[in-house]
Amino acid sequence: MSTGTAPSLTQNVAPLAAGAHVTGIGWLKGTAAFGLGDGGVLLAKDGESHRVEAHPDAGVLVAASDGERFVTGGDDGRVAVTGSDGSTKTLAETKGAWIDSLAVNAGGAFAYGVGKRVIARDDKGREKTLEVPSAARGLAFAPKGYRLAISHYNGATLWFPNVEAKPESLEWKGSHLDITWSPDARFVVTSMQENALHGWRLIPDKGHMRMSGYPSKTRSFSWSSDGKWLATSGAEAAIIWPFESKEGPMGKAPRECGVRPAKVSRVAFHPNTLVLAVGYEDGCILLIRLNDASELLVRPAVKDSGITAMAWDKGGKRLAFGCEDGQAGILTLP
């Protein structure tokens, strides 16, 4: 189905003028927080918005949220946290560095990378540092417990910051970019410089999973709430890998949903149902129901307004999105 014939939800979108490239989005209960390339954080709630200068005279490079905090890393070397009340403060600072990898967990911890060093701070403020073999590119906390996955050149490292045990190495040649855990913690998957994904089965055998065939790099992935599907960007459709078996997707073909003449730039699974939000480089957004591949149009293509960030709220009633040209919006489901 093309976007010209898809039923439309465009009338349910409240547009926002973020004013700068949107680099990350999080929800602080009922407030949407947009991290911006000019250093600001835009807070939007109930049709009103308020800008916070989280990184003055700098830019937000990366953002993460646990529902209570919107944590941002900037090219000013700072990790900042912004609350729904508009307060903002510095959590950590490393002068002369860019903070472009960041993770938070629901227990109050956060971690960030500075070159080869990864710094993790738990909910009690205890800080630990690990040096990995090359620059840390992606960070992700395990779904449960205080354990961190770090992607870098030639593989990934799994680290318990508060345990003296040696970190676990997951090896595979090449440059690994972003990293994610499956919701059941059975799999760790990275995106790679070589237009592919690589995964490791942590249970039971440390087996490798190679997922290739992308025409460009994957820089966005999202797990379904049941953990059985991993949606990815990087092609002219959302590529969705099956992970329901203990073998992962090996020997199985992925599903392709939302085929259009534009590359998918962001994907975000609904938190409760098998509905995927798919954002494209041409600015279009579709909602796709996996059961029957039916599509709903959220935003038509807009010139020079590619989708750069998307996030559902906790209940799955609203989808916030942001674009490269500073446009943004919030879809409220009917």
From TrEMBL:
SUPFAM superfamilies: WD40 repeat-like. Coiled coil: none annotated. InterPro entries: Apc4-like_WD40_dom, WD40/YVTN_repeat-like_dom_sf, WD40_repeat_dom_sf, WD40_rpt, WD_repeat_multifunction. The keyword Iron does not apply. The keyword Translocase does not apply. SMART domains: WD40 (SM00320). Residues 269-331 form the Anaphase-promoting complex subunit 4-like WD40 domain. It holds the Pfam family ANAPC4_WD40. It comes from the Bacteria. Keywords: Repeat, WD repeat. This is WD40 repeat-containing protein.
